[in-house]
Amino acid sequence: MVRIKICGITRVEDALAAARAGADAIGLVFYPASPRAVSPTVARQIIRALPPFVTSVGLFVDASATEVHQVLAEAPLDVLQFHGNESAEFCNQFGRPYLKALRVKPGDDLNALAAQWPDASGILLDSYKDGVPGGTGEIFDWSLIPLERNWPLVLAGGLTADNVADAIARSAPWAVDVSGGVEQAKGIKNAAKINSFVQEVKRV
Ligand SMILES: O=C(O)c1ccccc1N[C@@H]1O[C@H](COP(=O)(O)O)[C@@H](O)[C@H]1O
Protein backbone atom coordinates (compact mmCIF):
# COMPACT_ATOMS: atom_id res chain seq x y z
CA MET A 1 0.00 0.00 0.00
CA VAL A 2 1.50 3.30 -1.09
CA ARG A 3 0.79 6.19 1.27
CA ILE A 4 -0.48 9.50 -0.06
CA LYS A 5 0.28 13.08 0.89
CA ILE A 6 -1.67 15.97 -0.60
CA CYS A 7 0.52 19.06 -0.27
CA GLY A 8 -0.08 22.78 -0.54
CA ILE A 9 -3.36 22.82 1.38
CA THR A 10 -4.59 26.34 2.13
CA ARG A 11 -8.25 25.75 3.03
CA VAL A 12 -10.06 23.59 5.59
CA GLU A 13 -12.41 22.29 2.89
CA ASP A 14 -9.47 21.01 0.83
CA ALA A 15 -7.96 19.26 3.86
CA LEU A 16 -11.30 17.56 4.50
CA ALA A 17 -11.60 16.57 0.84
CA ALA A 18 -8.16 14.96 1.04
CA ALA A 19 -9.04 13.13 4.26
CA ARG A 20 -12.39 11.92 2.88
CA ALA A 21 -10.71 10.69 -0.29
CA GLY A 22 -8.36 8.55 1.82
CA ALA A 23 -5.13 10.57 1.90
CA ASP A 24 -2.73 9.75 4.74
CA ALA A 25 -1.23 13.22 5.10
CA ILE A 26 -1.71 16.83 4.14
CA GLY A 27 1.06 19.35 3.59
CA LEU A 28 1.12 22.98 4.70
CA VAL A 29 3.62 25.31 3.03
CA PHE A 30 5.51 27.83 5.18
CA TYR A 31 7.60 29.24 2.34
CA PRO A 32 6.47 32.86 1.96
CA ALA A 33 7.28 33.05 -1.77
CA SER A 34 4.92 30.17 -2.58
CA PRO A 35 1.37 30.86 -3.82
CA ARG A 36 0.44 28.00 -1.45
CA ALA A 37 1.92 29.59 1.65
CA VAL A 38 -0.23 29.65 4.77
CA SER A 39 0.14 31.54 8.02
CA PRO A 40 0.58 29.61 11.26
CA THR A 41 -2.92 30.74 12.27
CA VAL A 42 -4.53 29.27 9.15
CA ALA A 43 -2.40 26.14 9.52
CA ARG A 44 -3.68 25.71 13.06
CA GLN A 45 -7.30 25.97 11.86
CA ILE A 46 -6.67 23.36 9.17
CA ILE A 47 -4.90 20.97 11.56
CA ARG A 48 -7.67 21.29 14.13
CA ALA A 49 -10.27 20.39 11.49
CA LEU A 50 -8.51 17.16 10.51
CA PRO A 51 -10.07 13.86 11.51
CA PRO A 52 -7.91 11.37 13.46
CA PHE A 53 -5.04 9.56 11.79
CA VAL A 54 -4.41 12.15 9.08
CA THR A 55 -0.86 13.46 9.47
CA SER A 56 -0.05 17.16 9.13
CA VAL A 57 3.26 17.98 7.46
CA GLY A 58 4.84 21.45 7.50
CA LEU A 59 7.03 22.38 4.53
CA PHE A 60 9.93 24.82 4.98
CA VAL A 61 12.54 26.11 2.53
CA ASP A 62 15.70 27.35 4.24
CA ALA A 63 13.74 28.92 7.08
CA SER A 64 15.65 29.91 10.20
CA ALA A 65 15.32 27.76 13.33
CA THR A 66 13.50 30.68 14.96
CA GLU A 67 10.94 30.75 12.14
CA VAL A 68 10.33 27.00 12.41
CA HIS A 69 9.92 27.28 16.20
CA GLN A 70 7.49 30.19 15.73
CA VAL A 71 5.33 28.09 13.41
CA LEU A 72 5.46 25.11 15.78
CA ALA A 73 4.41 27.29 18.70
CA GLU A 74 1.10 27.95 16.96
CA ALA A 75 0.54 25.05 14.56
CA PRO A 76 0.87 21.54 16.05
CA LEU A 77 2.50 19.89 13.04
CA ASP A 78 3.14 16.14 13.20
CA VAL A 79 6.02 16.04 10.69
CA LEU A 80 8.39 18.62 9.17
CA GLN A 81 9.47 18.66 5.52
CA PHE A 82 12.69 20.48 4.67
CA HIS A 83 12.74 21.41 1.00
CA GLY A 84 15.86 23.59 0.86
CA ASN A 85 19.53 23.18 1.69
CA GLU A 86 19.04 22.30 5.36
CA SER A 87 21.75 20.18 7.02
CA ALA A 88 20.97 17.07 9.04
CA GLU A 89 21.99 18.95 12.17
CA PHE A 90 19.45 21.68 11.38
CA CYS A 91 16.65 19.20 10.62
CA ASN A 92 17.26 17.22 13.81
CA GLN A 93 16.82 20.05 16.27
CA PHE A 94 13.02 20.33 16.41
CA GLY A 95 12.11 17.04 18.11
CA ARG A 96 9.77 16.15 15.24
CA PRO A 97 10.02 13.45 12.59
CA TYR A 98 11.06 14.97 9.31
CA LEU A 99 11.29 14.39 5.57
CA LYS A 100 14.29 15.73 3.68
CA ALA A 101 13.54 16.76 0.11
CA LEU A 102 16.17 16.33 -2.59
CA ARG A 103 15.78 17.80 -6.06
CA VAL A 104 17.03 15.22 -8.51
CA LYS A 105 19.61 15.97 -11.20
CA PRO A 106 21.21 13.54 -13.67
CA GLY A 107 24.35 12.06 -12.16
CA ASP A 108 23.19 12.36 -8.54
CA ASP A 109 24.10 9.41 -6.31
CA LEU A 110 20.80 9.37 -4.47
CA ASN A 111 21.82 6.66 -1.99
CA ALA A 112 24.89 8.69 -1.01
CA LEU A 113 22.84 11.89 -0.74
CA ALA A 114 20.11 10.22 1.33
CA ALA A 115 22.75 8.90 3.73
CA GLN A 116 23.53 12.50 4.73
CA TRP A 117 20.19 12.62 6.62
CA PRO A 118 20.27 9.27 8.49
CA ASP A 119 17.61 10.39 10.97
CA ALA A 120 15.08 11.43 8.34
CA SER A 121 11.81 9.50 8.40
CA GLY A 122 11.88 9.57 4.63
CA ILE A 123 13.59 11.14 1.65
CA LEU A 124 11.31 13.05 -0.72
CA LEU A 125 12.50 13.22 -4.30
CA ASP A 126 11.32 16.17 -6.36
CA SER A 127 12.20 17.59 -9.76
CA TYR A 128 15.13 19.95 -10.12
CA LYS A 129 14.44 23.27 -11.82
CA ASP A 130 16.98 26.07 -11.63
CA GLY A 131 15.87 28.82 -9.28
CA VAL A 132 12.66 27.06 -8.17
CA PRO A 133 12.80 25.21 -4.83
CA GLY A 134 9.83 22.95 -5.53
CA GLY A 135 6.21 22.67 -6.56
CA THR A 136 7.30 22.84 -10.20
CA GLY A 137 4.56 20.55 -11.49
CA GLU A 138 7.21 18.77 -13.53
CA ILE A 139 8.22 15.12 -13.40
CA PHE A 140 11.84 13.99 -13.40
CA ASP A 141 13.49 10.92 -14.88
CA TRP A 142 12.30 8.16 -12.54
CA SER A 143 15.00 5.80 -13.90
CA LEU A 144 17.47 7.85 -11.81
CA ILE A 145 15.88 6.46 -8.63
CA PRO A 146 17.86 3.51 -7.21
CA LEU A 147 15.61 0.50 -6.70
CA GLU A 148 18.06 -0.81 -4.10
CA ARG A 149 17.89 1.62 -1.22
CA ASN A 150 17.48 1.51 2.54
CA TRP A 151 15.41 4.67 2.97
CA PRO A 152 11.68 5.26 2.59
CA LEU A 153 11.07 7.10 -0.68
CA VAL A 154 8.40 9.77 -0.94
CA LEU A 155 8.03 10.43 -4.66
CA ALA A 156 6.99 13.93 -5.74
CA GLY A 157 7.22 16.19 -8.76
CA GLY A 158 4.53 16.59 -11.37
CA LEU A 159 2.42 13.64 -10.27
CA THR A 160 -1.17 13.41 -11.51
CA ALA A 161 -3.89 10.77 -11.64
CA ASP A 162 -2.70 10.04 -15.18
CA ASN A 163 0.95 9.29 -14.39
CA VAL A 164 1.02 8.14 -10.77
CA ALA A 165 0.47 4.43 -11.53
CA ASP A 166 3.43 4.46 -13.92
CA ALA A 167 5.52 6.38 -11.38
CA ILE A 168 4.75 3.81 -8.68
CA ALA A 169 5.55 0.90 -11.00
CA ARG A 170 8.93 2.41 -11.87
CA SER A 171 10.05 3.53 -8.41
CA ALA A 172 8.21 1.44 -5.77
CA PRO A 173 7.89 4.37 -3.37
CA TRP A 174 6.76 4.25 0.25
CA ALA A 175 4.53 7.24 -0.47
CA VAL A 176 3.61 9.72 -3.17
CA ASP A 177 3.21 13.47 -2.76
CA VAL A 178 1.15 15.69 -5.03
CA SER A 179 0.33 19.35 -5.10
CA GLY A 180 -0.20 20.96 -8.52
CA GLY A 181 -1.67 17.77 -10.00
CA VAL A 182 -4.78 18.02 -7.83
CA GLU A 183 -5.34 21.77 -8.11
CA GLN A 184 -7.81 23.92 -10.05
CA ALA A 185 -5.74 27.04 -9.33
CA LYS A 186 -2.51 27.57 -7.38
CA GLY A 187 -3.28 26.77 -3.76
CA ILE A 188 -6.88 25.76 -4.49
CA LYS A 189 -7.44 22.03 -4.63
CA ASN A 190 -10.04 20.23 -6.71
CA ALA A 191 -11.93 17.50 -4.85
CA ALA A 192 -12.59 15.46 -8.00
CA LYS A 193 -8.88 15.52 -8.90
CA ILE A 194 -7.95 14.50 -5.35
CA ASN A 195 -10.42 11.60 -5.53
CA SER A 196 -9.09 10.44 -8.90
CA PHE A 197 -5.49 10.64 -7.67
CA VAL A 198 -6.18 8.69 -4.48
CA GLN A 199 -8.24 6.06 -6.31
CA GLU A 200 -5.48 5.59 -8.86
CA VAL A 201 -2.84 5.09 -6.13
CA LYS A 202 -5.04 2.63 -4.27
CA ARG A 203 -5.75 0.73 -7.50
CA VAL A 204 -2.12 -0.26 -8.08
O1 LIG B 1 4.22 24.04 -3.56
C1 LIG B 1 5.08 24.92 -3.53
O2 LIG B 1 4.82 26.07 -3.86
C2 LIG B 1 6.47 24.59 -3.08
C3 LIG B 1 7.35 25.64 -2.88
C4 LIG B 1 8.63 25.37 -2.46
C5 LIG B 1 9.07 24.07 -2.24
C6 LIG B 1 8.19 23.02 -2.45
C7 LIG B 1 6.90 23.25 -2.88
N1 LIG B 1 6.02 22.24 -3.15
C8 LIG B 1 6.30 20.85 -3.09
O3 LIG B 1 6.94 20.35 -4.24
C9 LIG B 1 6.58 18.98 -4.44
C10 LIG B 1 6.08 18.75 -5.84
O4 LIG B 1 4.96 19.54 -6.12
P1 LIG B 1 4.11 19.32 -7.49
O5 LIG B 1 3.24 18.13 -7.27
O6 LIG B 1 5.09 19.12 -8.60
O7 LIG B 1 3.28 20.56 -7.64
C11 LIG B 1 5.52 18.70 -3.38
O8 LIG B 1 6.12 18.13 -2.21
C12 LIG B 1 5.02 20.05 -3.06
O9 LIG B 1 4.41 20.16 -1.86
UniProtKB/TrEMBL annotation:
<keyword id="KW-0028">Amino-acid biosynthesis</keyword>
<protein>
    <recommendedName>
        <fullName>N-(5'-phosphoribosyl)anthranilate isomerase</fullName>
        <ecNumber>5.3.1.24</ecNumber>
    </recommendedName>
</protein>
<dbReference type="Pfam" id="PF00697">
    <property type="entry name" value="PRAI"/>
</dbReference>
<keyword id="KW-0822">Tryptophan biosynthesis</keyword>
<keyword id="KW-0057">Aromatic amino acid biosynthesis</keyword>
<dbReference type="InterPro" id="IPR044643">
    <property type="entry name" value="TrpF_fam"/>
</dbReference>
<dbReference type="GO" id="GO:0004640">
    <property type="term" value="F:phosphoribosylanthranilate isomerase activity"/>
</dbReference>
<dbReference type="GO" id="GO:0000162">
    <property type="term" value="P:L-tryptophan biosynthetic process"/>
</dbReference>
<dbReference type="InterPro" id="IPR011060">
    <property type="entry name" value="RibuloseP-bd_barrel"/>
</dbReference>
<comment type="pathway">
    <text>Amino-acid biosynthesis; L-tryptophan biosynthesis; L-tryptophan from chorismate: step 3/5.</text>
</comment>
<dbReference type="InterPro" id="IPR013785">
    <property type="entry name" value="Aldolase_TIM"/>
</dbReference>
<dbReference type="InterPro" id="IPR001240">
    <property type="entry name" value="PRAI_dom"/>
</dbReference>
<feature type="domain" description="N-(5'phosphoribosyl) anthranilate isomerase (PRAI)">
    <location>
        <begin position="4"/>
        <end position="199"/>
    </location>
</feature>
<comment type="similarity">
    <text>Belongs to the TrpF family.</text>
</comment>
<keyword id="KW-0413">Isomerase</keyword>
